[in-house]
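Question: I have long wanted to understand how a fold can be written as tokens. Here is the record:
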Amino acid sequence: MGSTLVLVVAAIALPWLTLLPLHGAAAIAASAITLVAAFHGAGLAVGRLAGQRDVPLLVAVQWGIAALIGASGLAIACRVGTLACHAVLVYACVAIHTAALAVRFAHQVERVAAALAPPRAWLVPAALLAGLGALTVLGAAGDSFAQPFDDDGPLIAQLRRVLDTGALADPIGYPRDAGLGAEVALAAVAAGPGDGFAHAIDPLAAVLALGLAVALLRPRDPPAALWATLLVAAGFALPFAPFDPVPCWTAIGLILCLHHLLGEAEPPALPLAITAGALAAIRHELAPIAAACVIAAWWRAPRDHRRTVVLLAGVLVVVFPFALARALAWRSVPQTAHAVLSVASRGSLAARAVLAAALAVPGALVLRLALPGSRALRLAALTTAAGLAALAVQLTGAGRYSPRLALPIAIGYAIALVIELARSRSLGPAALIASLALGVVIHEGTAASGRLRWSRRLAAAATGIEYLERPPAARRDPYAALLASTPIGATVAVWVAEPERLDYTHHRIFDLRTPAGARLRDHQWPQHISRAAALLSALSADYLLIEADDARVRRTQADLLYRWLCRTPRPLCDDDLEAIAHAHAVVADRDGVQLIDLRRDPEGRSPGADARGARDDDLRR
């Protein structure tokens, strides 16, 4: 009884350790505990609203992740999502967690005592999960070189923008064409207890997702414990599932939670809808599987109008704030700016939807062959097939990053399959194939080449922990001195290597170094209309902050004619952005970073006239 009391008291007290002046690995560990407690508190609040009093711990955590994504999205839509706001949000949920444990202290002691009662075969996978999870989370937090990037641009830079300004007001640098911004919102929540933890949110989500899988396996006997151990080892050994702020494991946890809820006799409508809404807000490619889960839950009782309203309202309460924030950001710049960056249409949405349905039906039939009699796996197969089919036909996303979104969908189904196989105690072909697949994944992780090898990833994590304890010397801010010479409130377009180090508080900053903005740096020999100039004019940019990069070197390597003509810099060799920079006055130049005043034209001619004239002279020669 003494040990159970200690564990419950620790669960109440430890989340508040972040209020102490901790440093290094201890501070990161305390932040992780605080976040898990906040997720649990938010999940308990969602459960209470749904009439669920005794919610399993790790299920409540996934509900809490979804709820805090929605709360952060609401704060961002209201332009108050700063670091202070997210800290208040996190500690309010920690207070709910603490109050829930304190009010039902005796009941919690009984639950812990029942969990610790023999048999204790679950201790093996739990210990493996705790050890590998701690190493991965702490190592990721110490990796200061992580630069997660997707179709919309750099995520850490957008996180800095949110924490500085409370909003995502740059529709050029972060257009949210591939998602609504939930991954940035979750990273902002993770920064609440400690700004340095934002890099480690997806590794923590991996620990929580695999922990949920272990809890659903109920590994009290040796066979179930063996399945759980293999699953944990395979999860961390996966060489192609990233442990960085890009939300792979966050999506896996939410998908696994949805599969679990659909397997219940009466799935709770509100938690399921909030979880599906958070999943849809992460990336557009995940919206079809979220919609399929909501439709599957509604299909249980289509005439229950109250349940239908709850399902729709639960999804909208998470998705709508993100959609509103995106719409407000897009309306903050002229339509001509969006027209410059627009891409060609991908064809008829209806035709792609029909094709996705045609692929989903046979896909679901194949996926359910593993355990035809399991209702939970049947629904998981249906929703997974819908998600993968929509991804294959590019129903909701078509960027280069889109194929990677098949990973969380497939991994979520694979974990659900392992759980059902372990519960069924089946030793048939499906169980043998699944166990063999887990073994192959573990072997692939240990035998992968380069940085993907499991041993090298663990070594890199250990190095990250060393950086936490002995952080490198602080680097000098390369942009602060240059931006200090500009008026407060000026509009600055930037092309820099580290946009996360910019001060977004005092200037209106548009980031051009994104997948969409990179198309503006095309170099063309014939005279043409500069899209970069058109964009800067539409944005009414006052300054251009541009950092030297290897664009000219790459053009030299790829184009023989360019290599021959451009041995020495000349206007003919400039791309559109370089031409703009050379046609205006340089206010400051420091360490390869130039601040260009786009308002100044010493000759009194239109912007870029000198550059175009020199280009024409070169072409005539």
